[in-house]
Amino acid sequence: MKHFLVTILALASFNFLQIPSTGLQSDPEITTLKFKLNPFSLSRQCLNTTTTILSELEFAECINFPAFRPLFEKKNFDAIEQLSGDFNEDIKIIKSIEPALVEVSKDFCKFPKCQDRFIQSHIQSTIVACQEDLKNNNTLAQVIFAAFVFYSPLHDSVCFENKQDIFCWDEFVRNNISLPNFTSIEKLNNNNIVDKICTLCNRAIVNTFFNFIPTSFLAQVIISLKKVKEYKQLLAFVCGDDFVNGTIIDPKTGKQIPSTTSTYIPTSTSNSLPKNT
Question: Which residues form the DUF7729 domain (predicted)?
């Protein structure tokens, strides 16, 4: 129950993306995948295309790639590869590399946000080049695909801060590291649990994603509208209807942030992978 409740919140962390094992036409359930981040696990076509895309000048103007260097230090890289989709274990791993993730977030958020049209324009190229990798459940290819699709809400969510200048994803980790496992939905009525889940930070994050997903066909491949509805219902039960009403309040200033969705969001793809069987 705990994992089900907070999956959408965990999307705000760099390494919590859970994505379907196959198919770009289906409406799949979310599956859990182990992380294998070796770039040489990608096919040559997928690796070359991804490298070419990330080498474009416009990326350098909006994404500070050297900022990610701490994640490739052996201790941190080894920890990331241990992520398995088990919420209780993964939250401990994220906590163990918290200083590196905070450092990365600070440098990442200094740069202006990439234009949605620029990011979205590369999704089709990624699907074509990495088609076999995606069909074969290559986790790195799936993460790359998901990162392109969800770049806009991920960027916003990673950079949200609370009034104490703590990143919202970090507040989420600190709050949830101490939460017990939920054996029934009734136990969510515990005030201590509600206070840690129903925060202004988490409200900003979930509404950022909930507002984005219905606008994007490819986002719905990763998280179906049915699953979004289930998350909304559960969060509304715990935190109230206002928590998931689509309004995004800046956790730091308390002011409402206008909802912005991509001006260029593909509604379909001409290079679909086979449906799940």
Answer: 82-247
- The token duo for 3 is 């994992």
- Count of CB atoms within 10 A of residue 85's CB? 17
Q: Tens of pLDDT along 241-275?
A: 999 999 999 999 999 988 655 433 343 444 444 33
- Tell me the pTM: 0.76
Where does residue 103 fall: left (phi above 0), alpha (psi -120 to 50 degrees), or beta otherwise? Answer: alpha
Residue 261 CA to residue 122 CA, distance in Å, equals: 17
Report in angstroms the alpha-carbon separations of 68 from 65, 101, 107, 138: 6, 9, 8, 22
Write the CA distances from 167 to 49, 202, 236, integer angstroms: 32, 11, 24
**Which H, E and C letters describe 126-190, residue by residue?**
HHHHCHHHHHCCCHHHHHHHHHHHCHHHHHHHHHCECCCCCEHHHHHHHHHCCCCCCCCHHHHHC
Burial of 242 (0-12, 13-18, 19+ CB in 10 A): exposed
Joined tokens for residue 25 = 């036409």
pLDDT in tens, 56-101: 888 888 888 888 888 878 888 888 778 776 777 778 888 888 999 9
Tokens describing residue 215: 């606008």
Cα–Cα–Cα angle for 34, 199, 220, rounded to 5 degrees: 45
What 8-state DSSP symbol labels residue 122?
T
| CA proximity to 141, closest of 252, 246, 273 | 273
